[in-house]
Amino acid sequence: MAKIEVLSREVQVLTVKEEDYICITDIARYKNQDATDDLIRNWLRNRNTVEFLGIWEQINNPGFNPVEFDGIRKQAGLNSFTLTPKQWIERTGAIGIVSKAGRYGGTYAHKDIAFEFASWVSVEFKLYLIKEFQRLKEEEHKTLGWDIRRNLAKLNYRIHTDAIREHLIPPELSAAQTALVYASEADVLNMALFGKTAAQWRGENPGDKGNIRDQADSAQLVCLSNLENLNALFIAEGHAQPERLRRLNQIAIQQMRILTGDGNLPKLGTSKKGSDA
Fold this sequence. Notes:
Elements: E1 2-6, E2 9-16, E3 19-23, H1 24-31, H2 36-44, H3 47-60, H4 66-75, H5 85-92, E4 97-100, E5 106-110, H6 111-121, H7 123-167, H8 175-194, H9 198-204, H10 218-236, H11 241-260
Antiparallel strand pairs: 1-2, 2-3, 3-5, 4-5
Helix pairs in contact: 1-2, 1-6, 3-4, 6-7, 7-10, 8-11, 10-11
């Protein structure tokens, strides 16, 4: 359940089978705070509304009942005609409108239908609703993209640690000694990409949560994933740590230039301010 604010009104957004449904009860409150159900019923009894809903269902719903729809359409617009969301759903098998009980209860409609209802309520409200809904989707995509890249980095880190365990850790090492080797190799990647170790970053950022990699941007996470795979390969090939660090740093600089379009990225051991890392 997500929420957006439209002209100082809170509007809830529900995901149903990977589709976005917007609370038209919240939209109705913009026009009449105390008679939202009546407003929705008045909209449903409109002939143009019934035609729109029927076409939407025929396009998107294989289980839609066309016989019942024809009966409703013939009565739509008559003074005696009434229709509630529950009646529409039960009689036609509609999926474009859903009723939800409980804390976040109300009548929800697929975004296509919700925008149509908002236009009927207020053109101004509809335009702001579309704007805020698009902003919500953009934020969700940014978050999803970052999570995917972060998880990719974590998966590649498993490949990296497996290579360390197989090629760099003799069986006689203690658990504490093994941890030092892992940390050392993790800092090879940190130095190659960020120009500093995890401990150096923590010393420079005592108030920040997480670690140096949690603060990485999308381009750095993509590059980190590549470096982890390459370092695992270099370890398996028997290259010494200093040589691997040098090669990984060169690759990091090259890849970050491509990913960011910046030809002036700092080299290993320097920061953008010119100080030693």
